[in-house]
Amino acid sequence: MRLTDPVCIKGFKLPNRLVASPVASATASVEGGPTEATFRRVEAILSSRAGLVVMEHHAVHPWGRVRRSQMMLHSDQMVPLHRPLAEMIREAGSVPLVQLNHGGSAIAEADLMDLPDFRCVAPSAVPHPAKDGRVVPREMTPEEISELPSLFAAAFERGHQAGYCGVQVHACHGYLLGQFLSPITNRRTDRYGGDLRNRARVLLEVVEALAERAGDSILAVRLGVADFFPGDDPRGLTPEESCWVARELAALGVDLIGVSGNLCGPDAPQGFDPYSKLIMEAVGDRCLVECTGMVRSAERAQTMLSSRVCHLVGVARPLLSDPSSLAGWVVGS
Ligand SMILES: Cc1cc2nc3c(=O)[nH]c(=O)nc-3n(C[C@H](O)[C@H](O)[C@H](O)COP(=O)(O)O)c2cc1C
Protein backbone atom coordinates (compact mmCIF):
# COMPACT_ATOMS: atom_id res chain seq x y z
CA MET A 1 0.00 0.00 0.00
CA ARG A 2 1.34 3.41 -0.99
CA LEU A 3 0.01 6.76 0.18
CA THR A 4 -0.41 7.75 -3.46
CA ASP A 5 -2.42 4.62 -4.30
CA PRO A 6 -6.10 5.16 -5.09
CA VAL A 7 -8.52 3.26 -2.88
CA CYS A 8 -12.22 2.45 -3.27
CA ILE A 9 -14.66 2.83 -0.41
CA LYS A 10 -17.94 1.36 -1.54
CA GLY A 11 -18.46 2.85 -5.01
CA PHE A 12 -16.29 5.92 -4.39
CA LYS A 13 -12.76 6.06 -5.70
CA LEU A 14 -10.38 8.11 -3.56
CA PRO A 15 -7.37 9.40 -5.53
CA ASN A 16 -5.02 8.65 -2.60
CA ARG A 17 -4.96 7.37 0.98
CA LEU A 18 -4.57 10.71 2.74
CA VAL A 19 -7.56 11.77 4.86
CA ALA A 20 -8.33 15.33 5.92
CA SER A 21 -9.58 14.57 9.43
CA PRO A 22 -12.30 16.74 10.95
CA VAL A 23 -11.26 20.09 12.42
CA ALA A 24 -14.07 22.09 13.98
CA SER A 25 -13.87 25.65 12.69
CA ALA A 26 -16.41 27.33 15.02
CA THR A 27 -17.48 29.39 12.00
CA ALA A 28 -21.14 28.37 11.63
CA SER A 29 -23.96 30.88 11.39
CA VAL A 30 -26.58 31.07 14.14
CA GLU A 31 -28.70 28.64 12.11
CA GLY A 32 -25.83 26.11 12.01
CA GLY A 33 -24.87 26.55 8.36
CA PRO A 34 -21.52 27.45 6.81
CA THR A 35 -20.37 31.08 6.54
CA GLU A 36 -17.78 32.75 4.33
CA ALA A 37 -15.19 31.83 6.95
CA THR A 38 -16.19 28.15 6.66
CA PHE A 39 -15.75 28.22 2.90
CA ARG A 40 -12.32 29.81 3.25
CA ARG A 41 -11.32 27.13 5.77
CA VAL A 42 -12.48 24.32 3.47
CA GLU A 43 -10.76 25.90 0.49
CA ALA A 44 -7.49 25.77 2.43
CA ILE A 45 -8.10 22.15 3.47
CA LEU A 46 -8.68 21.21 -0.17
CA SER A 47 -5.22 22.50 -1.10
CA SER A 48 -3.93 19.40 0.75
CA ARG A 49 -5.37 17.24 -2.09
CA ALA A 50 -6.47 14.67 0.51
CA GLY A 51 -8.51 11.89 -1.13
CA LEU A 52 -11.10 11.85 1.66
CA VAL A 53 -12.27 15.01 3.44
CA VAL A 54 -14.22 14.50 6.67
CA MET A 55 -16.07 17.70 7.50
CA GLU A 56 -16.04 18.83 11.14
CA HIS A 57 -18.61 17.57 13.64
CA HIS A 58 -22.19 18.60 12.94
CA ALA A 59 -24.72 18.44 15.77
CA VAL A 60 -27.68 16.14 15.15
CA HIS A 61 -29.80 18.20 17.54
CA PRO A 62 -29.51 21.69 19.09
CA TRP A 63 -29.10 20.10 22.53
CA GLY A 64 -26.32 17.95 21.14
CA ARG A 65 -24.26 21.08 20.39
CA VAL A 66 -21.03 21.80 22.23
CA ARG A 67 -20.78 25.47 21.22
CA ARG A 68 -23.05 28.06 19.58
CA SER A 69 -20.97 28.36 16.41
CA GLN A 70 -21.06 24.61 15.66
CA MET A 71 -22.34 23.33 12.33
CA MET A 72 -25.68 21.51 12.54
CA LEU A 73 -27.76 19.08 10.48
CA HIS A 74 -30.74 19.08 12.80
CA SER A 75 -33.43 20.28 10.39
CA ASP A 76 -34.32 19.96 6.72
CA GLN A 77 -33.71 23.69 6.30
CA MET A 78 -30.01 22.96 6.70
CA VAL A 79 -29.80 20.97 3.45
CA PRO A 80 -29.55 23.87 0.95
CA LEU A 81 -27.11 25.69 3.25
CA HIS A 82 -24.67 22.75 3.31
CA ARG A 83 -25.00 21.74 -0.36
CA PRO A 84 -22.43 24.23 -1.77
CA LEU A 85 -19.81 22.97 0.69
CA ALA A 86 -20.19 19.31 -0.31
CA GLU A 87 -20.18 20.36 -3.96
CA MET A 88 -16.98 22.35 -3.51
CA ILE A 89 -15.20 19.29 -2.08
CA ARG A 90 -16.44 16.97 -4.84
CA GLU A 91 -15.43 19.45 -7.54
CA ALA A 92 -11.92 19.52 -6.10
CA GLY A 93 -11.69 15.75 -6.71
CA SER A 94 -11.99 14.63 -3.07
CA VAL A 95 -14.68 12.47 -1.51
CA PRO A 96 -16.62 14.39 1.17
CA LEU A 97 -18.00 12.83 4.37
CA VAL A 98 -19.80 14.76 7.08
CA GLN A 99 -19.20 13.95 10.73
CA LEU A 100 -22.29 13.64 12.93
CA ASN A 101 -22.13 14.23 16.65
CA HIS A 102 -24.05 14.60 19.87
CA GLY A 103 -21.88 16.26 22.49
CA GLY A 104 -23.62 14.99 25.63
CA SER A 105 -21.93 16.56 28.65
CA ALA A 106 -18.78 17.65 26.77
CA ILE A 107 -19.97 21.19 26.22
CA ALA A 108 -17.27 23.70 25.36
CA GLU A 109 -19.32 26.79 26.30
CA ALA A 110 -20.99 26.71 29.72
CA ASP A 111 -23.46 29.44 28.67
CA LEU A 112 -25.15 26.96 26.34
CA MET A 113 -26.90 25.99 29.57
CA ASP A 114 -28.61 29.43 29.53
CA LEU A 115 -30.36 28.70 26.23
CA PRO A 116 -34.05 27.88 26.62
CA ASP A 117 -34.63 24.14 26.31
CA PHE A 118 -30.92 23.24 26.24
CA ARG A 119 -30.47 19.87 27.91
CA CYS A 120 -27.04 18.87 29.14
CA VAL A 121 -27.40 15.11 29.26
CA ALA A 122 -25.10 12.13 29.57
CA PRO A 123 -25.40 8.40 30.25
CA SER A 124 -25.03 9.19 33.98
CA ALA A 125 -25.01 12.29 36.17
CA VAL A 126 -21.20 12.35 36.28
CA PRO A 127 -19.24 15.55 35.52
CA HIS A 128 -17.16 15.14 32.38
CA PRO A 129 -13.64 14.11 33.51
CA ALA A 130 -11.97 16.39 30.95
CA LYS A 131 -13.96 19.47 32.05
CA ASP A 132 -13.78 21.63 35.19
CA GLY A 133 -16.49 19.71 37.05
CA ARG A 134 -18.89 22.66 37.28
CA VAL A 135 -21.38 21.15 34.83
CA VAL A 136 -23.20 18.11 36.14
CA PRO A 137 -25.25 16.55 33.36
CA ARG A 138 -28.64 14.99 33.82
CA GLU A 139 -28.85 11.22 33.31
CA MET A 140 -30.59 10.47 30.02
CA THR A 141 -33.96 8.81 30.26
CA PRO A 142 -34.58 5.56 28.34
CA GLU A 143 -36.94 7.56 26.07
CA GLU A 144 -34.18 10.06 25.24
CA ILE A 145 -31.77 7.22 24.48
CA SER A 146 -34.33 5.60 22.20
CA GLU A 147 -34.50 8.85 20.15
CA LEU A 148 -30.78 8.81 19.29
CA PRO A 149 -30.87 6.40 16.31
CA SER A 150 -33.58 8.46 14.61
CA LEU A 151 -31.76 11.76 15.32
CA PHE A 152 -28.60 10.41 13.65
CA ALA A 153 -30.61 8.81 10.83
CA ALA A 154 -32.41 12.07 10.02
CA ALA A 155 -29.08 13.95 10.00
CA PHE A 156 -27.65 11.24 7.74
CA GLU A 157 -30.51 11.76 5.24
CA ARG A 158 -29.88 15.52 5.28
CA GLY A 159 -26.17 15.02 4.69
CA HIS A 160 -27.00 12.74 1.77
CA GLN A 161 -29.41 15.29 0.29
CA ALA A 162 -26.76 17.97 0.68
CA GLY A 163 -24.42 15.93 -1.53
CA TYR A 164 -22.11 14.24 0.96
CA CYS A 165 -20.91 10.78 -0.08
CA GLY A 166 -21.58 9.48 3.41
CA VAL A 167 -21.21 10.18 7.10
CA GLN A 168 -18.78 9.55 9.91
CA VAL A 169 -20.35 8.88 13.31
CA HIS A 170 -18.40 10.65 16.07
CA ALA A 171 -17.86 8.03 18.77
CA CYS A 172 -14.64 9.34 20.30
CA HIS A 173 -13.04 12.19 22.25
CA GLY A 174 -15.49 11.80 25.14
CA TYR A 175 -18.64 13.04 23.35
CA LEU A 176 -21.99 11.36 23.99
CA LEU A 177 -21.43 8.02 22.21
CA GLY A 178 -17.94 7.82 23.73
CA GLN A 179 -19.46 8.65 27.14
CA PHE A 180 -21.66 5.58 26.75
CA LEU A 181 -18.66 3.40 25.80
CA SER A 182 -16.60 4.39 28.84
CA PRO A 183 -17.27 2.85 32.28
CA ILE A 184 -15.93 6.12 33.77
CA THR A 185 -18.84 8.19 32.44
CA ASN A 186 -21.39 5.40 32.05
CA ARG A 187 -22.57 4.14 35.46
CA ARG A 188 -25.98 3.01 34.28
CA THR A 189 -27.49 -0.17 35.61
CA ASP A 190 -30.01 -0.70 32.80
CA ARG A 191 -29.39 -2.32 29.39
CA TYR A 192 -27.25 0.69 28.31
CA GLY A 193 -24.67 0.37 31.09
CA GLY A 194 -22.51 -2.22 32.82
CA ASP A 195 -20.77 -4.74 30.60
CA LEU A 196 -19.25 -3.82 27.25
CA ARG A 197 -22.17 -5.14 25.21
CA ASN A 198 -24.50 -2.81 27.14
CA ARG A 199 -22.15 0.20 26.96
CA ALA A 200 -21.80 -0.26 23.19
CA ARG A 201 -25.52 -0.84 22.67
CA VAL A 202 -26.47 2.74 21.84
CA LEU A 203 -23.60 3.13 19.34
CA LEU A 204 -24.57 -0.13 17.66
CA GLU A 205 -28.25 0.93 17.54
CA VAL A 206 -27.28 4.25 15.93
CA VAL A 207 -25.08 2.50 13.38
CA GLU A 208 -27.73 -0.10 12.64
CA ALA A 209 -30.23 2.69 11.88
CA LEU A 210 -27.73 4.30 9.50
CA ALA A 211 -26.79 0.99 7.87
CA GLU A 212 -30.45 0.40 6.99
CA ARG A 213 -30.47 3.68 5.07
CA ALA A 214 -26.91 3.84 3.80
CA GLY A 215 -27.54 2.42 0.33
CA ASP A 216 -24.59 3.53 -1.80
CA SER A 217 -23.34 6.02 0.81
CA ILE A 218 -20.22 5.47 2.86
CA LEU A 219 -20.81 4.62 6.52
CA ALA A 220 -17.84 5.45 8.73
CA VAL A 221 -17.36 5.51 12.50
CA ARG A 222 -14.62 7.39 14.34
CA LEU A 223 -14.02 5.20 17.37
CA GLY A 224 -12.43 6.33 20.62
CA VAL A 225 -10.50 3.13 21.15
CA ALA A 226 -9.37 3.75 24.74
CA ASP A 227 -9.63 6.25 27.58
CA PHE A 228 -5.81 6.40 27.87
CA PHE A 229 -2.96 7.00 25.42
CA PRO A 230 -0.74 4.13 24.19
CA GLY A 231 1.89 3.40 26.84
CA ASP A 232 -0.06 5.04 29.71
CA ASP A 233 -1.59 3.21 32.67
CA PRO A 234 -4.89 1.61 31.60
CA ARG A 235 -8.13 3.18 32.86
CA GLY A 236 -11.70 2.98 31.64
CA LEU A 237 -12.31 1.74 28.09
CA THR A 238 -9.49 -0.49 26.78
CA PRO A 239 -8.26 -1.18 23.21
CA GLU A 240 -9.03 -4.87 23.72
CA GLU A 241 -12.69 -4.00 24.43
CA SER A 242 -12.73 -1.78 21.35
CA CYS A 243 -11.62 -4.68 19.16
CA TRP A 244 -14.94 -6.34 19.97
CA VAL A 245 -16.81 -3.08 19.21
CA ALA A 246 -14.94 -2.74 15.90
CA ARG A 247 -15.88 -6.30 14.87
CA GLU A 248 -19.53 -5.57 15.67
CA LEU A 249 -19.37 -2.35 13.62
CA ALA A 250 -17.87 -4.22 10.68
CA ALA A 251 -20.58 -6.88 10.95
CA LEU A 252 -23.23 -4.15 10.74
CA GLY A 253 -21.73 -2.96 7.44
CA VAL A 254 -19.48 -0.08 8.51
CA ASP A 255 -17.10 0.68 5.63
CA LEU A 256 -14.42 2.63 7.49
CA ILE A 257 -13.34 2.83 11.13
CA GLY A 258 -11.28 5.83 12.19
CA VAL A 259 -9.03 5.22 15.19
CA SER A 260 -8.63 7.91 17.85
CA GLY A 261 -8.81 8.33 21.63
CA ASN A 262 -11.91 8.44 23.80
CA LEU A 263 -11.92 10.28 27.16
CA CYS A 264 -8.18 10.96 26.78
CA GLY A 265 -8.92 13.03 23.67
CA PRO A 266 -7.18 12.96 20.28
CA ASP A 267 -3.70 14.27 21.11
CA ALA A 268 -1.64 11.14 21.83
CA PRO A 269 2.01 12.28 21.93
CA GLN A 270 3.13 9.43 19.64
CA GLY A 271 -0.16 8.88 17.82
CA PHE A 272 -2.50 5.89 18.04
CA ASP A 273 -0.54 3.44 15.88
CA PRO A 274 -0.54 0.48 18.33
CA TYR A 275 -4.31 0.75 18.80
CA SER A 276 -4.92 1.03 15.08
CA LYS A 277 -2.85 -2.10 14.43
CA LEU A 278 -5.02 -4.00 16.92
CA ILE A 279 -8.21 -2.77 15.25
CA MET A 280 -6.80 -3.75 11.80
CA GLU A 281 -6.14 -7.26 13.10
CA ALA A 282 -9.59 -7.44 14.71
CA VAL A 283 -11.59 -6.49 11.60
CA GLY A 284 -9.41 -8.27 9.02
CA ASP A 285 -10.61 -7.48 5.52
CA ARG A 286 -14.18 -6.71 6.61
CA CYS A 287 -13.67 -2.94 6.65
CA LEU A 288 -11.06 -0.26 6.11
CA VAL A 289 -9.19 1.38 9.00
CA GLU A 290 -7.90 4.96 9.18
CA CYS A 291 -5.58 6.34 11.85
CA THR A 292 -4.99 10.02 12.72
CA GLY A 293 -2.55 11.53 15.20
CA MET A 294 0.88 13.16 15.03
CA VAL A 295 1.52 12.35 11.38
CA ARG A 296 3.87 15.08 10.23
CA SER A 297 5.69 13.63 7.24
CA ALA A 298 4.94 11.58 4.14
CA GLU A 299 7.57 9.09 5.32
CA ARG A 300 5.75 8.48 8.60
CA ALA A 301 2.43 8.13 6.76
CA GLN A 302 4.01 5.65 4.35
CA THR A 303 5.53 3.62 7.21
CA MET A 304 2.09 3.35 8.82
CA LEU A 305 0.67 1.91 5.59
CA SER A 306 3.62 -0.39 4.93
CA SER A 307 3.57 -1.81 8.47
CA ARG A 308 -0.19 -2.36 8.29
CA VAL A 309 -1.10 0.11 11.03
CA CYS A 310 -3.98 1.29 8.82
CA HIS A 311 -5.29 1.49 5.26
CA LEU A 312 -5.66 5.29 5.27
CA VAL A 313 -3.74 7.99 7.15
CA GLY A 314 -5.37 11.08 8.62
CA VAL A 315 -4.00 14.53 9.38
CA ALA A 316 -5.66 17.39 11.24
CA ARG A 317 -3.48 20.21 12.64
CA PRO A 318 -1.24 20.30 9.55
CA LEU A 319 -4.44 21.24 7.67
CA LEU A 320 -4.53 24.42 9.75
CA SER A 321 -0.84 25.32 9.64
CA ASP A 322 0.33 24.48 6.11
CA PRO A 323 -2.29 22.51 4.14
CA SER A 324 -0.84 23.03 0.67
CA SER A 325 2.45 21.40 1.69
CA LEU A 326 0.51 18.14 2.20
CA ALA A 327 -0.19 18.02 -1.53
CA GLY A 328 3.49 17.18 -1.96
CA TRP A 329 2.84 13.93 -0.06
CA VAL A 330 0.28 12.67 -2.58
CA VAL A 331 0.89 14.43 -5.88
CA GLY A 332 4.01 13.71 -7.92
CA SER A 333 6.24 16.73 -8.53
C1 LIG B 1 -9.04 22.83 16.09
C2 LIG B 1 -9.37 21.36 16.10
C3 LIG B 1 -10.67 20.97 15.88
C4 LIG B 1 -11.00 19.58 15.87
N1 LIG B 1 -12.27 19.21 15.57
C5 LIG B 1 -12.59 17.90 15.50
C6 LIG B 1 -13.89 17.48 15.11
O1 LIG B 1 -14.76 18.28 14.77
N2 LIG B 1 -14.13 16.15 15.10
C7 LIG B 1 -13.18 15.22 15.43
O2 LIG B 1 -13.45 14.02 15.40
N3 LIG B 1 -11.94 15.58 15.77
C8 LIG B 1 -11.61 16.89 15.80
N4 LIG B 1 -10.33 17.27 16.11
C9 LIG B 1 -9.30 16.23 16.34
C10 LIG B 1 -8.51 15.99 15.05
O3 LIG B 1 -9.33 15.45 14.03
C11 LIG B 1 -7.31 15.03 15.28
O4 LIG B 1 -7.77 13.80 15.76
C12 LIG B 1 -6.27 15.57 16.25
O5 LIG B 1 -5.99 16.93 15.99
C13 LIG B 1 -4.96 14.74 16.18
O6 LIG B 1 -4.47 14.71 14.86
P1 LIG B 1 -3.23 15.66 14.38
O7 LIG B 1 -2.05 15.29 15.23
O8 LIG B 1 -3.04 15.34 12.92
O9 LIG B 1 -3.65 17.10 14.60
C14 LIG B 1 -9.99 18.62 16.13
C15 LIG B 1 -8.68 19.04 16.36
C16 LIG B 1 -8.35 20.38 16.34
C17 LIG B 1 -6.91 20.80 16.55
TrEMBL record:
Keywords: Flavoprotein, Oxidoreductase. InterPro entries: Aldolase_TIM, NADH_flavin_oxidoreductase, OxRdtase_FMN_N. Gene3D superfamilies: Aldolase class I. One of its GO terms (molecular function) is oxidoreductase activity. Residues 5-324 form the NADH:flavin oxidoreductase/NADH oxidase N-terminal domain. The keyword Oxidoreductase applies. PANTHER family: BINDING OXIDOREDUCTASE, PUTATIVE (AFU_ORTHOLOGUE AFUA_2G08260)-RELATED (PTHR43656:SF2). This is NADH:flavin oxidoreductase/NADH oxidase.
